[in-house]
Amino acid sequence: MTAGRLVAVYGAMLVAFLALDLLWLGVVARDLYRRHLGSLMRADVHWGAALAFYLIYLTGVLVLAVLPAVEAGTWTRALGLGALLGLVAYAAWDLTNLAVLDRFPAAIVPVDLAWGTFLTAVVALAGYGTARLLG
Question: Exposed e or buried b for every residue in 121-132, given b needs 16+ CB within 10 A?
Answer without folding.
Answer: bbbbbbbbbbbe
